[in-house]
Amino acid sequence: NTPTPLLSLNNVEVIYDSVSLAIKGVSLEVPQGGMVALLGANGAGKSTTLKSISGLLRPERGQVSRGEVRFQGQNIDALAPQERVKLGIVHVLEGRRVFEHMTPDENLIAASAVRGNRQDMLRNKDMVYSYFKRLYQRRTAQSGYLSGGEQQMLAIGRALMTQPKLLMLDEPSLGLAPFLVAEIFEIVQDINKKEGLSVLLVEQNAIAALEVVSHGYLIENGRIVMHDSAEAMKKNPDIQEFYLGGA
Ligand code: ATP
Fold it and tell me: Contact 221/44 with Cβ under 8 angstroms?
């Protein structure tokens, strides 16, 4: 008897324009407290998979998903994005969107409006700053002037203010120097371990991602083509050739 996974996708398909499938039957799981990567090249279907989980597809524009998304055993397909946030699912979109004219402190406070009282807000803010110490040092600067790495930290910090159970990160490494990617990934791993927060990390940067997750999925052309432990994936010849820059 395996315990119910926190998140499970069963044969999920997404259509954008009523013609072709962007993802073609994706099945994956994130265990309670797990940290899992979804790896793949540009356009493979990673962002689409995350949208099917957070509910950010737009049916009125012909964007439809089929199959089943379960969270804590409950089918959530009919729930609106804000209802999924209340259940504990948070999606940090690609491109680290923060309020540029506000300080990091104000950004974090604004993000907490979703949940809890003032005491929770202050506690969550302290928690974010305890992990992202750079952000604490910059807490009164204008967010638009933060570096790319600091903005990514703030985007993740804002997500943490909603007290999520599942943190989904879309391509957090994009455009960041390798040392910063490593720093941010290690902090997320630390949060995963200490707070028990489950993480689904979407990345093209397989090298960095496989250092911090326990398991990974590889998606190609809208299909999951590999699922294994991070250690096994790092040793896999195909992964080495196509995603780790050659063996
Ligand atoms: P990237 O990291 O570049 O976003 P990805 O792996 O996340 O890549 P998706 O963005 O999920 O890939 O895209 C999967 C497929 O769906 C691609 O073929 C893409 O062109 C298509 N697609 C994505 N968004 C839309 C959209 N809004 N309308 C139509 N097609 C889309």
Answer: yes
